[in-house]
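User: quick one, fold this
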Amino acid sequence: MHSLATPRLVATDLDGTALRTDGTVSSRTVAAFARVEESGAALVFVTGRPPRWMRPVADAVRHRGLAVCANGALVYDLHTERIVESHLIAVDALQEVVAQLRANVPGLAFSVEYEGGFAHESDFLIGRLDRKTQNVVCADSASLTSRPCAKLLALHPGMGPDELLATVHELVGHLVTATHSSGRGLIEMSAHGVTKATALAALAREHAVEAAEVVAFGDMPNDLPMLSWAGTSYAVANAHPEVLAAVDHVTAANNDDGVALVLEELYT
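Assistant:
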């Protein structure tokens, strides 16, 4: 069933994959993560989430391990709660991307994720987690693009995410790397070439781990680079069709502890 015996590194997405739909980590999944670490393997959370959304997850896993945040732009130490590595979008690229998208896609609203906070335009509808966290400010476009950021987000009220992603890629794909991870028309952009896979591969090299020794789990298009890079890839049953088509294996849905099911089998 598995293409490797006991992986030396486990990489998992959080929302829609290891987390339940309500954002919680089940006790079964917490126990499975502990089993991975007790075996001596590395556990890395690889997420589109910014560090400021990581506190509940860090608490649930007892502040163990590293997290690749913001789709690869930031590496975050869960123990110290500090960013240890950054790959940011430069100001000139950021301003050019916003200008091109605003000129060609009417109706877009923008927000940016910095290393230490989040800013959004007044018509950008922020989500539940942003309403609950600190360092969230409303700003105009000139302020948004005045300093480097980890992630630029573009929200459209009417377009679907796959259609919008194709449009963004055509317009500014030479300036940033774009993806999406939700069911709404929300596109996430990182510095050009920065993905979950690039950050995970760098961490693996630091641990002298080969891609063939990695098992990865995901559910959305922003997970595809990581799933393609890892030696063994799993989608949860609730994953996006493109993800289901790209992986080696499919496990149970996130609400049915699909990640834990596999880890229990791999780390007996």
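User: anything notable?
Assistant: The first strand starts at residue 9 and ends at 12.
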